[in-house]
Amino acid sequence: MSVPAEWQQNLAKAFSNRSFLIGLIITGLIALTAVLSFVWTPYAVGTLDIAGKLKPPSEAHWLGTDHYGRDILSMIMVGSRNSIAVALVSVVIGIAVGVPLGLWAAARGGLIDEILMRFNDLVFAFPALLSAVMITAVFGPGAVNAIIAIGIFNIPVFARVARGAALVLWPREYILAARASGKGALRITVEHILPNMANLLIVQATIQFSLGILAEAGLSYVGLGSQPPMPSWGRMLFEAQTMISLAPHMALFPGLAIVVTVLGLNLLGDGLRDVLDPRLRRDR
Amino acid sequence: MLSYASKRVLIGIATMLAASIVVFAVLEVVPGDPARLMLGMNATEDAVRALQEQMGLNQPLLVRYFHWLGGLLTGNLGRSYTYAVPVIDLITERIAVSLPLALISLALSTTIALPVGLFSASRRGTISDTATMGAAQIGVAIPNFWFALLLVYIFAVTLRLVPAGGFPGWSAGMWPALKSLILPSIALALPQAAILARVTRSALLDVLGEDYIRTARAKGLTRRSVLYRHALRNALIPILTILGLQFAFLLAGTIIIENVFYLPGLGRLVFQAITQRDLIVVEGVVMLLVATVILINLLVDLSYAVVDPRLRGRT
User: Fold this and answer.
1) Whether ipTM exceeds 0.90
2) What does the pLDDT read at residue A265?
3) Rounded CA gap, B249 and B188, in Å?
4) Which residues pair with A71 in a beta bridge?
5) What does pTM read for this prediction?
6) Which of A55-64, A249-258, B222-231, B301-310 has the highest mean pLDDT?
7) Does A262 touch chain B (CB under 8 A)?
8) Which chain B residues are closer than 8 Å to A126 by Cβ?
9) Which end of chain B is less congested by CB atoms within 10 angstroms, N or C?
């Protein structure tokens, strides 16, 4: 099998790719921060200190304090868990439902394919924010409903990628050989089609992850995401809005946290695409 | 051309119907009786029942759906439970804010992105290409509502050039109304422009690698005329696709941006309607936005055929 050699080659390519390296370092640091926040934050996020409220960055509070005197750095650290969790689970929903649907459509073709693609059109007609609005109208706001809304939007994205890739793979000779040897569509899909599209799915997952971070921030900003007292980047920005003339730092840092995280993921995604999928190189 | 177009139109109509079922079904399961909500806690059982009768709430689900659908087609979206005016009036009033906002943003982002993408593609691999695309990479990562907050801090709070929020209404005059839409449309447009610039650049680079471009250059056309006359036209398909998607994003994006700037548009209307459980308004606005998205996608699909004659024969 040539798989290990291919992976070694990819690894070597990855570590000479600037986008990938910068993205990996940023994403790694954010993930570490989220993990660290479980065991240590500079201050407890529940501690209010009204006397020390709205303080600009200082030695005691590196990123300043908010209108309740809470430490902004600690809140950003804990908030990262929320962003990552919502975006990650939404991606998992998208893959778990979308990929089998796409594979099924590609394997069966015909009517099933057509129905599935029209279903995709339907979901695409509801921008994530709009489905979140509807879901909230029914079930009320919360992190779980944000996950459902973003996850639903991810399903057709992955279905499309999986279907497109599978359609390219089905006419290949080794698939024909597998069919000739008597393997069924399901077995061929699992053994041959899926492993050969893993690269594409990894790249798409990175992209959807970063979109999920942005969507979660937007939803919690308008109050449809996770609810207090759990800190979230979007809601920190909402709270900062009324304080913008008194304490602009309250708006600056949570926003920067979002930008850095999304930027890191996008760079990682671009790098992965260059390494894993030469057909889609962005700098052709 | 006709078969391609008619198939697209049929799919558009079918999607619209399916969407109406989804919207109706989702909002039907909402707990709470609109009639009781309208009349308040102290209403008598008889009064509630009478209103239910009047609103047709005790009819079977299917009857109510077709009634609602019929209303949609004739522009009768029902009456708002809280404002006690026709939903269509509320929507027309608010769309006068949201639509100009979305259109200005789209125009702004296209005017910025196309030249930037062209510039970057024509200087591929140079420092200016790397710098522009680096800036675009950061632009893509910026949430529009955060960018909006920064704009408010700089241009409204510190420099006091424009209002920080609110909308005087078009009756207050063109300029005051437009002035209050400047920051919101910039906030919406810039992150979208970053995406569009990247797509424009890569679409152009894809096309510039084609054989017919080399032929055009070989027969003596200048780089400039190859870029504008051959490359740009052929790169239009991916650009149009993203433009269509962006309009949908911009419309949905107005929901958030209107909340940053306290603009009385469709987005604010939806949020108020949700908190007041005024579901018929939510239904109306969501359906309108979804229909717009489907219509835009249809127009994009049809414009492919105009841009790319090869598609006309296909079904």
Assistant:
1) no
2) 95
3) 9
4) A65
5) 0.88
6) A249-258
7) yes
8) 19, 22, 290, 293
9) C
Domain at A240, CATH number: 1.10.3720.10
The pLDDT confidence band at residue A2, using thresholds 50, 70 and 90, is low
Q: Is the CB of A127 less than 8 angstroms away from the CB of B259?
A: no
Burial class (CB in 10 A: 0-12, 13-18, 19+), B256: buried
Residue A1 confidence class, pLDDT cut points 50, 70, 90: very low
In a domain, A51, yes or no: no
Half-sphere exposure of B153 (CA within 13 A, CB side): 20
Does residue A280 carry a pLDDT above 60?
Answer: no
Q: Say yes or no to pLDDT of A278 above 60.
A: no
Structure tokens at B296: 């835009």
Whether the CB of A248 is below 8 Å from some CB of chain B: the reply is yes
Domain that holds residue A171: 18-34+63-283
Rounded to an integer, what distance in angstroms lies between the CA atom of residue A75 and that of residue A220?
14
Residue type, B144: N
Handedness of CA B92, B98, B104, B110 (dihedral sign): negative
In order of start, what are the domains of chain B with their CATH numbers? 2-74 (no CATH), 87-313 (1.10.3720.10)
- Measured in angstroms, the CA of B313 and the nearest CA of chain A are apart by 20
Residue A126 has pLDDT above 50, yes or no: yes
Judged by phi (left if over 0) then psi (alpha if -120 to 50, else beta), residue A107 lies in alpha
Residue B274 predicted with pLDDT over 70: yes
| Mean pLDDT computed over B99-111 | 93
- Whether A43 maps to a domain, the answer reads no
Query: Which is it for the CA torsion A79, A83, A84, A90, positive or negative?
Result: positive
Interface mutation vs chain A, best among B146, B183, B270, B287, most A CBs within 10 Å? B146
Q: Which of A124, A127, A255 sits opposite B143 (nearest CB)?
A: A255
For residue A253, tell me if it sits in a domain: yes
A44 part of a folded domain:
no
Chain B CB contacts of A215 under 8 Å are none
Substitution target in A130, A232, A266 with the highest count of B β-carbons within 10 Å is: A130
DSSP string, B284-315: HHHHHHHHHHHHHHHHHHHHHHHH-GGGGG--
Interatomic CA distance for residues B167 and B98, integer angstroms = 11
Report how many domains make up chain A: 1
Give the SS3 label for residue A180: helix
Q: What is the pLDDT of residues B191-204, one digit of tens each?
A: 899 999 998 998 88
Q: How many CB atoms lie within 10 A of CB A9?
A: 12
Q: Which of B30, B142, B255 has its CB closest to that of A129?
A: B255
State both tokens at A53: 């409220």
- Which residues in chain A have their CB less than 8 angstroms from residue B200's CB? none
**Residue A151, C-beta contacts closer than 8 angstroms, at least 6 positions apart:** A89, A90, A92, A93, A94
Give A134-175 pLDDT, tens digit per residue: 787 777 788 888 898 899 889 999 998 899 888 888 888 888
